Structures are given as C-alpha cells and as structure tokens.
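Aim 2 progress update. The chain analyzed this quarter is reproduced below.
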Amino acid sequence: MLGIDSLRLVTGWSMGASQAFLWAARYPDLVRAAAPIAGSARTASYNKVFLLSLRRTLELDPSFKSGFYEQPLLQGLKAFASIYAGWGFSEEFFRTDAFRVFGAKDYEQFVEYFWEPFFTSCDPNNLLSQLWTWVDGDISDNSIYNGDYEAALRAITAKTVILPVNLDRYFPPVDSQYEATHIPNGRCHVLKSIWGHMEPMNLSDTTDLDGVLNELLV
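Predicted structure tokens:
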C-alpha cells in the first residue's frame, strides 16, 4: 500500500526492541537489518516477577475497584514508581550516587523527582494494558511459529546486532546471547553502563550505540 519493499534498519528500545525482533521474524524479506536495544524476543520469567509486583501495586490500591476507579490511584502509582526506580537503574548507579546528575540529593529524592512525576500522570488501566503486553511478549506466539521460539529466531535473516546493557535487570545479556546464537546473521554486542536499562536515555556518551547503528546502516 505504501510502496515500501525494504526496511534498511528496524530498531527499538525495551518493548520497542521486542517489536524489532517481531518485525524481523514476521517479515524476513522486508527487514535488512535489526538492532533490538535492551529488550528481548520473549519475556523471561524473572522479568515477569517484576511485572507482577507492578500489577499488584495498582490492583491492591484501595481505590482501584477492579479497574473502575473514580479518583487517581496516587498510593498505587507512587509505589509503582518506587519499584520501577530500583529496576530501571542498576545497583551501582545508586551506590555511586549517580542520581545526583538529576539534582537529587539521595535515593528517595531521586524517586520523587524523576519517577513519581511521570507515573502519577499515567492512567492505571493504561499501565496495566502495557504490562500485559510486556508479559505476553513472545515472537513465536502466533500461527506462523506456533510457540517454537528457536524457529522464530532462526527465521530472522536480517543482519542483526542485539544490544543488551550489562547491568540491565529486566533484560540481562545472557538472554541476548542465547537469542544471537539462533539468529543466522546475528551477534550480541553488550553496552556497558551503570544506568542499566535506562542507558539509552544517557546522552552523555552515545559513541558505542551510535557506532553499531551506523555499522548496520552501511
């Protein structure tokens, strides 16, 4: 319909990385290169435990009312933000007081300044919808691959560089390395940063990431 018969590069961060995997597996003749950043082709069980804790912070808020709430779920959303803070950035980020670049004097102020303003402005049901999308992420869960995860990875013919972050608690490099072994033209390139999963937001040094993306665009 749009007259596009080739995509030079499909990339994305976090759940966007999951989409990059999916596009490459579903449309191997269309995608020339793929660069999933800090994400996975299938959501791992450890990751799902984190997502379960987030879901329960909202559903157990006294005002939730099975999703038919009549007022903002501030208690649940603030708890949601504090859980996210401990997973989004690494242990070393907090140990070295790296949060000070955000103007916070300590970990609690960092949660208050950085995480709470974002999540308290979100609609809880919208967040829950995103959580379920994340939980159910699996590029093989369709009528093409029928749950055969390795077959879905093998179907990716694009030049693929998977870009995990070494201290990412959601998507550890070990999962990316496994994915890369099943993609015919794939490899894993580990980004190193105490920012953990949030590394793509760190604009102070994008040399490593930009270098890989430029390589794929050649």
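Residues 45-59 form the longest helix (15 residues). Strands lie at 10-13, 33-37, 159-162, 186-188. These observations will guide the mutagenesis experiments scheduled for the next reporting period.
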